[in-house]
Amino acid sequence: MGVVALSFDCYGTLIDWEKGMHDAFQRVISRHSLSVDVEQMVRRYIEIELEVEGETYRKYKDVLRISTRKLLEEMGVEPSIDEENVLVETLPRWPPFPETRETLRRLQEKGLKLIILSNVDDDLIKGSVELIGVEFDDIITAEQTRSYKPAHGHWIRMLEAHKLEKEQVIHVGASYVHDIVPASNLGFKTVWINRKNETPKVRPVHSYEFPDLSPLPTLF
Known about the structure:
Blueprint: E1 5-8, H1 17-32, H2 38-55, H3 60-74, H4 81-84, H5 86-90, H6 100-109, E2 113-118, H7 122-132, E3 138-141, H8 142-145, H9 153-162, E4 169-173, H10 176-185, E5 189-193, E6 208-210
Parallel strand pairs: 1-2, 1-4, 2-3, 4-5, 5-6
């Protein structure tokens, strides 16, 4: 049974979410004259967001607001409404990685379905898809599944909606926790996009590893 589809995480894989957060948080740092490393701030935000997502299902806009508030309060800042919403407001404009559009087009030329599995709301991802500039076969969000990866809802919905077997899909993601581990545990082949040359903090389970998206078409 051959591969007919690729599923992709969006933020961190297709969209440069760390640059988006970096730029957004830098505005807050400058406003309050904070002595803090913005890279460390982004890393801590990612940890907090994972915790908030694991509590219960909320709209992703609420996850962003709650996580941002928790982060800033940890830093001794009482955030304004604008600061709570800094990620909500900027996310639709976060840039795709340089190779994203061309790689996806090359995959489409090979006849492969392209499906996004993302931990966001339906309306938030629209701006990102427009920036990517590629028409996807489906976009499955947390708003639709009412769950957040690493829960399995996105993959189950994809298989059911497209009448696919897991052997027909390769999942592509940058986050080991959110994407590679759960997809591998479900029996999917996976591609880890390891842009920072990191070492997994758990037993490696990915099928392939690339430094960016560009080599993906060579698999087919």
